[in-house]
Amino acid sequence: MTNTTPNQAETNVSKPARIATKRVLALTVAGLLAATSLTAMTGFTQPGPAQAQAVLNKAPAEGFADLVEQVMPAVFSVEVEFTPVAFEGHDMPRGEHFPEGSPFRHFFDQFQGKRFGQQMPQRQPRRQGQGSGFVITADGYAVTNNHVIDGAKEVKVKFSDGKFYTAKVIGTDRKTDLALLKIETDKKFTPVKFATKAPRVGDWVIAVGNPFGLGGSVTTGIVSAQGRNIGSGPYDDFLQIDAPINRGNSGGPAFNLNGEVIGVNTAIYSPSGGSVGIGFAIPAAITQDVIDDLKDDGSVTRGWLGVQIQPVTGDIAESLGLGKATGAIVTDVTRGSPAANGGLQTGDTILNVNSAEVKGARDLARKVATIKPGSKAKMTIMRAKKQMTVEIKIGTMPKDTRQLASKSRPEAGSAMMSLGLKLKPSETGQGVEVVAVKPSSPAAMKRLQRGDVILEVAGIAVDDPQSFAAAVEQSAAEGSTRVLLLVKSGNRQRFVAVPTEQG
Questions:
Q1: Which fold has domain 303-406?
Q2: Where in the sequence numbering do the catalytic residues fall?
């Protein structure tokens, strides 16, 4: 057999034949690898031609141009001018801050009582912002993000045809970062509609907006996840999408293949400020509810229960006798609140509201917020390891939630030295105060610390170390390997399931 180098071998085959051979080999190898990987990892074989074609048929044959032409007239860029504010000076350092004889003391004594910036008043330069939005009614009501227009002196919108209009802010909602505008013109617009059906993970999504101030731009992708909490507010329930969105896309719409708005593009996850394929949109259902409220009177009215709550962890679920970690546990009830009037108690675990499962603390907050104030809600709760139903008349969420803390009435509670705690009676007469925590003890592992006040043990109120110890012993006698403590830290209360040393 004659040895040849790669270059010599290639010269024996025509160029077209070589290319064809390489393609066949590449496709064959790729196909074999894919089939082997899929079969080995999942136990399934590759989909047949009919299945593959079905997937491809879900995307428009010639792209998304027809859909974009349909929705683009309703999308605009937002140009905002913010009110300039005066530069506020800071107090000059006082001469007595420096030692006697110091040259700095003599210098600053000359300006006693002056303020930096006082002699040369300045104003910040005019600031402008950019974002996106979309029209939802023919007479010019439109949606954008609150953070796009917050503090605006003037709001102008520009459409893809180049026309500018002035817009009036009808109302805003900081908690969901939504704002309602009214475009001031007699022109009739072509609005877009909100989707009535929630998208599924994997559905196509088309994002339209004004990235980096470039004007109308379109990107596509899929819905990557649902129910994302990004820490922006108490009602976070974002869609995660991978259609690239960037600065300036805020407030713009995300469409499904029917040209319906499934969400309002609001935030991105990015170390640089540019898209890395992780964007977040406020779902259409939430947006529509908020916008309808804003259109009525310029503000949002939410249902209010009047409790402090926390999620149910696996440890807490076991101590409560629940089969799984679900629901929200009440850590405090506000005096005179709908919850107090309806009979809810500290330690109750709310499992569902109006037959809908409560998946966690945030889920409960969202569910209650959407209930019309004045209406009654049926709640299934777990109390003392027994399930029961209560009916509560939902109230109106106070405008200033900072006042709620002063209206709360703390409950009594307890703690125990055998868990690694040194205790003393609380100065208030309710509960026992943690004096010290033994390192590496069960209590230390659960992050109890000096100054915490333990109000209850397994639902039993205690006010000295002896009653605390008795309650722990009773819990152990009932077969519990963890004891549930109600702990107060500052103005907040929480439940902690601490394993016993024997458990």
A1: Pdz3 Domain (2.30.42)
A2: 147, 177, 250
